[in-house]
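Input set for joint prediction.
Command: fold jointly, output tokens.
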Amino acid sequence: MTVEVDPSPKFAEYAHPERLVSTEWLQARLGTPGLVVVESDEDVLLYETGHIPGSVKIDWHTDLNDPIERDYINGEQFAKLVGSRGIARDTTVVIYGDKNNWWAAYALWVFTLFGHEDVRLLDGGRAKWEAEGREYTTDAPAVAPVDYPVVERDDAAIRAFKDDVLAHFGRPLIDVRSVEEYTGQRTTMPAYPEEGALRAGHIPTAQNVPWAKAVAEDGGFKPLAELNSIYRDGAGLRDGDDVIAYCRIGERSSHTWFVLTHLLGFEGVRNYDGSWTEWGSAVRVPIVKGTEPGAVPVGR
Amino acid sequence: MTERDLPDSLIQIQDDFLELDQRDRLVLLLEFANELPELPPRYAEHPDLFERVEECQSPVYIFVEVDDDRIVHLFATAPKEAPTTRGFASILAQGLSGLTVEQVLDVPDDFPNTIGLTEAVSPLRIRGMTAMLGRTKRQIREKIAA
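tokens >
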């Protein structure tokens, strides 16, 4: 049994209002059977300093990534992970986190790879919950582990690999990194560790729309009209477009994937999680430097 | 050279982490984060003296003092929303403060990888502490050269 959808007017205009919940909605439903709240942060210790009562923690790096191969965990590992957090296949999962839900969106995208149906974001994430003075606790939640079925990951619909990107030229690409990374001044965000890309710049034809443009001042998502003006008018996306979004390791672009898919209603959006750390180090892939997207590369 | 050619303060920190299981190592890191001392007033009023460690995911500022006896004092500040970064800074502040210049410069650059946190925290995040250690040593070299 899934939990009812948040009827907030703010969400009604989005393509999939059922993918968002407000802080008020969540507050009123903490402890509801069939609902599990998940915190997913950039900082691996932030949850321990205080979290929404009853919420469980899933870490993007230590939980969702395979420890050996550069890939996500498999169906068996996912079943074990989320089952241990009390999540069943029909559980309503609400994810929130730091940095405007950047890692929360990443976790939501990974849940989607496993076809978990009812997974939502807390609009505004940790920052909004905190700004409103809502309760945090350091108490560990009492979690009763449940059985989650082993469902193999389905990468086809929402995940792109390097070869998919090479075959995608001519259709829209969105580079959601900072301007400095896009133009090739640097390979990583200001103030972030170098992650070892050997070349700087962007994938030819990619439009640069830094992910945080979708976020309003209160940390929640911007209204539909503003999102349309950013992604349709600004980046030129049109209904029916197949879009691939990328960033550095696929985290910021999962945030944009969420916006394009669930708020704007684009159906063929894929996240290229190899992103710049793969593309910027791969041999003989075309790269453009500077502020212009560049032309479709000719075959060689 | 022994396997652990480290000052006692760092050996103690290393042992404290390594004897714990992965989950408790995070708890100990959080304790370090909570113990990061407030800046002494002479620095609290002068944020301009601090150097931002660009490699860290969250803003962290460190400042090294070398006194007349060539003893190192390390000060750091990081926001409460970045407990991992605070924990790293606190480990270095507690582990390096009071050592001599030579002792600090001799600390292996990969010390952050040897305290059992790479699995609990991820190797990527550990790089933040490696960068802080590097900055600390560089500031010391600059100060003793001056």
